[in-house]
Design a protein that fits this description.
2 copies of one chain form a homodimer. Helix content of chain A is 42%, strand content 20%. The first copy, chain A, contains 18 helices and 19 strands. In chain A, strand 11, helix 12 (297-313) and strand 12 form a beta-alpha-beta unit. Strand 2 (10-11) of chain A pairs antiparallel with strand 5 of chain B.
Chain lengths: 496, 496
């Protein structure tokens, strides 16, 4: 049952999809239907894929097309001959049934499920069933530990050969919360080893890696990460370029589509990525406020307990900080806008946003204390001193140069000013509406797009003063953002 | 944001998928990623689709490709200009969250969910989340009633203007269980109105509609169904050609992929299809045995209660019969093989399978009693009399001619005989292994493929006597079936 392989260049976002012509004799002989599963093998490699049946000229009879994900995973060159056979559901489906029946899974069960995910044997259907089962039935502490350990082992792991490897993580939901480059620069300048891996946006107008990419290369292979860290104690890279806890992104993608966020999966996701990246000491920032993962202080305290307990079990020294997540942080929301805030702050520019500066110093100070680089109670002053002296900027620029310096791209040339309609004081700013506006304006795909937020909660404005400015790189994108803003402005910023 | 529409001929099995070129300015401007949701509209029509990003020549920049499902649903001609906009998750996602939290949904909630499914706003991810939530949390009797009523209203409904419209349904899992054409012919010959709609195979080597299609046209529009039924009291058509309870097939597809079968969804699926098809009096055959939906008699009795109660609530007069589902019924498994059994039986051929005959007469007799066409206790003799007199065959041939007669295709020219290895008695025959063998041999896609089962449980064989024969239409397909059979033969048929 040989077919000629064809890479047809369809990006299905990591789902293995195979395309067969509707006149193909093999698909008839095998009685294959759309969405059936098939196994494709060559040179001792094999992958499973979900089948789509195609008319016309995309694939010819005798040829099998593969989505980019499937083609790359099979690792066989275009035009090779491959074997095709019908196949059964992944073996770990029985374990999903077990979880659906409300039973706890074992360490070995998680190993099998994660292996099936990593090998591409789960289509979106099984992946969703896994995520929804975990969401409904919940995970015990044992299960979170096992899932985390399995996720760590499923991908690459970084090792820095030091007893203290520092890291920080902010849980998402707060636009503009770009403390990472500042904390990393201060910590590395203080002599801490801090090989910082960050993620790109999934649901936000900019992930940390998206913002940093406007300043330097972030897609470094492991060897270059080691080189940069050896030279400068720290780096600022995209974690996705090294293969850390690979099932995590797939799980997050499904959670995002369903707008769900199972506590156990979230904890496991964060701990797996930190530990796979080689961290030993971690500051975890949990913003508390409407639209974040901790809507109330009680929920924040609960998460804090969970993270600290599970960190201990996994051999991670975690200090959890509950911070104010009730409004955006800094002025910029969007890659280039946030990069501008970061550079101003590192350069001690008096126009740098005060809230971002205060939060960064708080996190950096706690990290210095957690790792013993400063005495208890003196972390913040040490951090402030390093920032004020210019050493943080110097460290940042060295890392930037070593990784490959970029100039911050210009802000979008299409913009809309939103002015205060009356004199008054800002009462609330809605994180989600601000984020969505920045996204519709094109962030993060268009790095110059986003929202410049001129004012924060409690600030006073005169009528006609600038509240915020929306930047876009095209008129079409600005139109989308404007239309959304017009419908949501009254809920986005409340003044009194 | 106008793009030119292109039907690109990819069959994604009813998922709305849109394809945009990776260089397309609109996808950049909108910051679109693979798997994002977009809304495509033209002429006041709009659909939602999941996005795939494509390199190369499948779609050009400025063009948007749609999967067959999406193209047909939008209903706009090729090369038209369409509007494209990013869109949010379907509104009923909140109701999935409610169900995930273990709460009961209301009638109105189900109406919203089913509307989103019918309108194509659910991708595989939401559809799976719906099915898994229902499976884990279960459905109350109220919920089953509401879901069923909503499903009925979501599609077309047939109306025959009679107070008694007969129907029968056999729950799946038993290969060869092809009683429908026989029961329908007997009932119609007895003067009952029996507009029989059947389904095609989802997981089996032949659905009733697949088997009947080897004998006559089954894809009749509603108007022709009314014509045939007015003329002959009955018909034998594929329910899929009329749009009955359309979300049902999508739900079944996901259940199949996950190998799950939530009781509430199953009951709702069957009742919705019967009621939408216009039935008032239904015989429901629940086979009991390993690998069927009722593995034990207790489970069978439980389902019987449920179906009768819910039937009452929905205004359906249901009589549930628990039958022997422990082994295949008849000799043929696969479209043409089953059609041969049916014709022999209707023609009173002494070689017709006795078990299929007995079961058909039992079901037909119960239906005649339920509808008052015979006195209690005399249904079976009336059915037998109609069959023996040749009136059932006559009725069947009249329906066959009216719908459009086909000749049964020849059996596959590639075959393998499986002979008894020793003298002995058949103890067990495994439904699932026999089904899978027939599928791998090409059934139902190749109508001449399948398994001819020469013996049943308790039959005696001499060494070397024919146990079964596998038919395929190609050597490749026979090879697949042979390979599977070689691995599973010892569990498939146990002799003593």
């Amino acid at each position: 049952m040989k077919l000629r392989l064809k890479r047809i260049g369809i990006d299905t976002a990591r789902e293995n999809v195979a395309f067969l012509d509707d006149d193909d004799l093999i698909s008839h002989a095998l009685g294959l239907h759309p969405l059936d599963r098939i196994e494709i093998s060559a040179n001792g490699q094999s992958i499973r894929a979900v089948l789509n049946i195609v008319e016309g000229s995309i694939v010819q009879a005798g040829t099998i097309g593969l989505s980019n994900a499937a083609f790359n995973k099979l690792g066989v060159s275009d035009n090779s001959y491959v074997d095709v056979a019908p196949t059964e559901s992944p073996a770990s489906l029985d374990l999903l049934h077990k979880k659906m029946a409300g039973r706890e899974l074992t360490s070995n069960d998680y190993a099998k499920i994660i292996d099936d995910i990593v090998q591409g044997r789960y289509s979106k259907v099984e992946l969703t069933a896994f995520v929804v089962s975990m969401t409904i039935s919940g995970l015990s502490d044992d299960e979170i530990t096992w899932l985390t350990e399995t996720m760590i082992q499923s991908g690459d792991q970084l090792h820095f050969g030091s007893t203290i490897v520092a890291d920080k993580h902010s849980i998402g939901g707060v636009p503009g919360n770009r403390t990472t480059p500042i904390v990393t620069s201060i910590a590395a300048a203080a002599g801490l080893l801090i090989p910082k891996t960050s993620s790109r946006s999934v649901t936000s107008p900019s992930g940390t890696a998206d913002t940093i990419e406007t300043l330097m290369d972030v897609e470094l292979p492991a060897q270059r990460i080691y080189d940069v860290v050896r030279e400068e104690n720290g780096c600022l890279v995209w974690g996705g370029a090294v293969n850390l806890a690979p099932p995590d992104d797939l799980i997050i993608q499904v959670e995002h589509a369903l707008n769900i966020d199972a506590e156990g999966l979230m904890i496991s996701s964060i701990l797996a990525k930190k530990k796979a990246a080689g961290a030993t000491h971690v500051i975890l920032d949990i913003p508390v406020g409407h639209g974040t993962k901790a809507e109330t202080t009680e929920k924040g305290e609960h998460l804090k307990q969970k993270f600290q307990q599970l960190g201990l079990r996994l051999g991670l020294n975690i200090r959890v900080l509950l911070t104010d997540g009730s409004q955006p942080i800094g002025n910029g929301i969007g890659p280039a806008l946030e990069a501008n805030d970061v550079i101003k702050l590192l350069a001690n520019d008096p126009e740098a946003p005060v809230d971002l500066r205060e939060k960064s110093l708080y996190l950096a100070g706690e990290l210095l204390e957690l790792t013993g680089k400063s005495k208890p109670g003196q972390g913040r002053s040490l951090a402030q001193q390093i920032l004020a002296s210019g050493k943080a900027l110097e460290k940042f620029e060295k890392i930037r140069k070593l990784q490959g310096r970029h100039e911050i791209p210009p802000l979008g040339s299409h913009s809309l000013d939103v002015l205060a309609e009356k004199h008054g004081q800002v009462r609330t700013i809605d994180n989600q509406i601000i984020s969505r506006t920045a996204q519709l304006a094109g962030a993060p795909h268009n790095p110059g797009a986003g929202v410049y937020l001129a004012k924060h909660v409690n600030d006073f404005l005169d009528q006609g003063q600038l509240l915020l400015r929306i930047y876009a790189e095209s008129d079409e994108a600005l139109t989308f953002a404007k239309r959304y803003w017009a419908e949501n402005a009254s809920a986005a910023i409340v003044m009194s």
